[in-house]
Design brief:
The complex is a heterodimer of chains A (297) and B (566). Chain A is an alpha+beta fold and 297 residues long. Chain A contains 4 helices and 11 strands. Chain B is 66% helix and 0% strand. The chains are: A alpha+beta (297), B mainly alpha (566). Chains A and B meet through helix 2, helix 3 and strand 10 of A and helix 3, helix 7, helix 8, helix 9 and helix 10 of B. Bound molecules: copper (II) ion.
Chain lengths: 297, 566
């Protein structure tokens, strides 16, 4: 009976070594996103907040996991069957059982407290930077009370519409006729430094708006409006894709956000607006010509 | 099959074992027709388990094709249509056609034996529930002949409405839910009534084996949850076929309603699958550490607690939908509460091993594998319960990894522990230990290689249910590792299948009680005769077989003393 026991001990030692190596390497990996923690990187506070909340819970999780695994491995090695080993015939231990129940509850209370402390940064949008403030406009909160606005109530609001299999964005406009609104597909262009508020809709089936580096995902549900926001400080392109199964080409329903400094954003916006006005005028001209041609003498 | 001994066995040798006293028990009838018409709980149990294995292999092959497709970025191995049908079939099969029947098989076979009953309360109803399950499987897989559903096992509306899923695959899926649902519902009633009314004399509620406790709790959960999903799929069916608009937002219906109804069933379903595995672990660990279970009452209370809280947390699957803030908080805190009874169980199991005399048999190994794997699944569940964190993790491969850690690490490892533990009772023969150990290590390594890395894929932004992905970051490496792991896992499962097939014919003879078990099923022969027992002993503790063994030892000593002349 000696050899199997030794083999077992070697196996357990190996397991312990591998798992401890994994946990030693974790702090090293913390720096790189996407391996053990969610993405962030655009400088938007909600994504940063989720990432740091995840890491705080992760520290507790690693302690619990290593602790319980250690206890288990120790038990398995120490109390493996051996000649003369007498199993103790205990049926339980009230004090011990109450204490681990309370212990588990305390860990969860701790996680709840950490969550509520971090929640503000994730859930509540800050004011836009001064450089982007002129782009924003004052918004009255939606009636359903689920849209969070910054303290000054000013945001740059974009409507997101999900349809099989593309994202369509509509930009706010001083124009009273919203048929003239600037819009784009797949790529959303936003100003850095502005608190961008998204209203998310779906036109056919459910979709889910998600750009990992810009925070959480929010479902586009037909018949409902969903809300989220971000405030990017680093100009750049942030990629994502639809995260709710929406049909055969769900995998191809990609999205990206291009963040430009406010002045460049304004230039892009003006170009789009002019292009739309131009297209409208061309269409009107063609229409008038057609009417004139068929009107007869 | 077996002929029961007609005389009381004669005790020989120094170490007496209790053996069944089955005078004139009816032999099992033989021939295939006797299987089709049987109402014997043991045969129905075996048929359930056989059906479960069949669908496990089918669902497993579907998973391997999925993994092959994802092994490379921008893969073109299969079409998006085939891919969506495959993950729909994989999920549906594993939940409704593998796990539910497999657990029903264990419960059918073991619950009457463990409580000292001669059959289930309603044997004919029992046969009906098995054949309804078969019908569900046939109807669902019949859709392979036209076009299988592509909406995932959750079949969210309005994607599952005729406008977006015009073929009849979704209707086949609906009928599968109906047929297997009725099957499970009457099966659950049967189990509940059997446990409530047919326990051996002396088996008070505090002496009921823990597996039986978990089955009782599971049957209550099924009775609560199944009518809701039955209603939901009926509404979907009338939407699709009879012009109603329950889930159609363009006509005043609500697509969120489907999610609420689905998850009101879907979340308890998770506990419906893992609680019985908890029961199996609670039976196996005391036997092989040669110690009583640590904290019997706490484990029972935790089981009931998980069931009660488990029915109240369904919307944690919906944190990214338009929910009011108060509900987000409510469902987060509710989900936290479940971690307490679950944690209590893990500690109770660990302390059952503590100061024991642990024998590393294959059932022990799978139970230990369960503890480590399920522990990680439980911990990642905490991350998902925190709704702001879930906003990042929801619907990604992180979630795929999480629920495979809980369902495979929990339910499947528990079932495999139970298979190796009770196979001698089912068949009269032992499963090969050596092959079993090879199988265990291959499954364990294969599982962790497949699913650990999927957490990273999800954190890097890979959503679930995508038939292809671009190779950004390390996504292709992660997926390749996962695919390699899935084939290792498949080899491990195959080893157990081979083990079963060879051991049924040529395994070592088991005898009535090969493990020195604690519960009454080991009091009968292996396999038990048609009516299980002809005398049922009076139960005086949770471990009646231990009591009987002690009693026999005492009697033996006494008769030896009487035999030695002074
Ligand atoms: Cu989509």
């Amino acid at each position: 009976m000696r050899t199997p026991a030794r083999r077992l001990r070697r196996r357990l030692a190996l397991t312990a070594a591998v798992s401890s190596a994994a946990f030693v390497s974790i702090p090293a990996a913390v720096a790189s996103a996407g391996i053990i923690a969610p993405e962030s990187g655009g400088g938007t506070p909600n994504a940063e907040g989720i990432r740091s909340l995840y890491l705080l819970i992760g520290i507790l999780a690693v302690i619990v996991f290593v602790g319980v695994c250690g206890l288990l491995i120790h038990t398995l090695v120490k109390y493996r069957a051996s000649k003369g080993g007498v199993p103790s015939q205990v049926h339980g231990n009230n004090r011990l059982e109450v204490s681990w129940t309370v212990g588990a509850a305390l860990i969860l209370v701790l996680i709840s407290v950490v969550t509520f402390v971090k929640l503000g940064q994730i859930y509540e949008p800050p004011n836009s930077d001064a450089s982007a403030l002129p782009l924003t406009s004052k918004l009255t909160p939606a009636a359903d009370g689920r849209q969070k606005l910054p303290p000054n109530g000013r945001v740059y609001q974009i409507d997101v519409n999900g349809l099989q299999y593309v994202w369509r964005y509509t930009y706010p406009d001083g124009d009273t006729n919203n048929l003239n609104n600037v819009f784009s597909y797949e790529e959303m262009v936003v100003p850095t430094g502005a608190t961008v508020a998204l209203r998310i809709f779906a036109q056919d089936v459910q979709h889910s708006w998600w750009i990992p580096q810009l925070g959480g995902k929010f479902d586009a549900v037909p018949g409902y409006a969903n809300y989220t926001w971000f405030k990017i400080s680093e100009p750049g392109v942030y990629r994502g894709q639809c995260a709710e199964l929406c049909g055969r080409n769900h995998a191809n329903m990609v999205a990206q956000v291009r963040a430009l400094p406010p002045a460049k954003f304004q230039a892009w916006y003006d170009r789009q607006k002019a292009a739309i006005r131009n297209a409208d005028e061309q269409a009107a001209k063609a229409r008038n010509a057609a009417i004139k041609a068929t009107a007869g003498p | 099959m077996t002929t029961a001994p007609t005389t009381a066995p004669v005790k020989t040798g120094p170490a007496p074992v209790p053996e069944i006293v089955a005078h004139n028990a009816d032999p099992q009838p033989s021939g295939w027709l006797s299987w089709l018409t049987t109402t014997d709980h043991k045969r129905i149990g075996i048929m359930y388990m056989a059906a479960g294995w069949l669908f496990f292999i089918v669902g497993g092959v579907e998973a391997l094709v999925i993994r092959l497709q994802l092994a490379q970025a921008d893969s073109t191995l299969i079409t998006p249509q085939t891919y969506n049908a495959l993950f729909t079939m994989h999920g549906t099969t594993m939940v409704f056609l593998f796990l539910i029947p497999m657990i029903a098989g264990f419960a059918n076979y073991l619950v009457p034996l463990m409580i000292g009953a001669r059959d289930m309360a309603f044997p004919k109803l029992n046969a009906l529930s098995f054949w309804l399950l078969v019908a569900g499987g046939v109807v669902f897989y019949g859709s392979l002949l036209y076009s299988p559903a592509e909406c995932g096992w959750t079949c969210y509306a309005p994607l599952s409405e005729t406008a977006y899923s015009p073929t009849n695959g979704v209707d086949a899926w609906i009928f599968l839910i109906h047929l297997t649902g009725i099957s499970s519902f009457i099966g659950a009633l049967n189990i509940f009534v059997t446990i409530a009314n047919m326990r051996a004399p002396g088996m008070t509620w505090s002496r009921v084996p823990l597996f039986v406790w978990t089955m009782l709790t599971q049957s209550i959960l099924l009775i609560i949850a199944l009518p809701v999903i039955a209603g939901a799929v009926t509404m979907l069916l009338t939407d699709r076929q009879f012009g109603t608009h329950f889930f159609d937002p363009s006509n005043g219906g609500s697509s969120l309603l489907w999610q609420h109804l689905f998850w009101f069933f879907g979340h308890p379903e998770v506990y419906i699958l893992v609680l019985p595995a908890f029961g199996i672990i609670s039976e196996v660990l005391p036997v092989f550490s040669r110690k009583p279970i640590f904290g019997y009452r706490a484990i029972v209370a935790a089981t009931l607690g998980i069931a009660v809280i488990g029915t109240l947390v369904w919307a944690h699957h919906m944190f990214t939908t338009p929910l009011p803030y108060a509900l987000l908080v409510f469902f987060m805190l509710g989900t936290f509460l479940i971690a307490i009874p679950t944690g209590v169980k893990i500690f109770n199991w660990t302390f059952t091993l503590w100061r024991g005399s642990i024998e590393f048999t294959v059932p022990t190994l799978f139970s230990i594998g369960f503890l480590f794997t399920f522990l990680l699944g439980g911990i990642t569940g905490i991350f998902l319960a925190v709704f702001p964190v879930d906003w990042q993790l929801h619907d990604t491969y992180f979630v795929v990894a999480h629920f495979h850690y809980t369902i495979v690490g929990g339910a499947v490892f528990g079932i495999l522990a139970g298979l190796y533990y009770w196979f001698p009772k089912f068949s009269g023969r032992m499963l090969g230990e050596r092959m079993g150990k090879w199988s265990f290590w291959t499954i364990m390594i294969g599982f962790w290689v497949t699913f650990l890395v999927q957490h990273s894929a999800g954190l890097s932004g890979m959503p679930r249910r995508v038939y292809e992905y671009a190779d950004v970051g390390n996504l292709e490496i992660y997926n390749l590792i996962s695919t390699i792991g899935s084939f290792i896992l498949a080899v491990g499962i195959l080893l157990t299948v081979i083990n079963i097939v060879t051991s049924v014919r040529s395994g070592a003879k088991a005898g009535p009680d090969p493990w020195k078990g604690n519960t009454l099923e080991w009091f009968s022969t292996s396999p038990p005769p048609r009516n299980n027992f002809d005398t049922v002993p009076r139960v005086r503790s949770v471990e009646p077989m231990k009591d009987i063994r002690r009693q026999i030892e005492r009697q033996d000593r006494r008769s030896e003393e009487a035999a030695t002349p002074a």
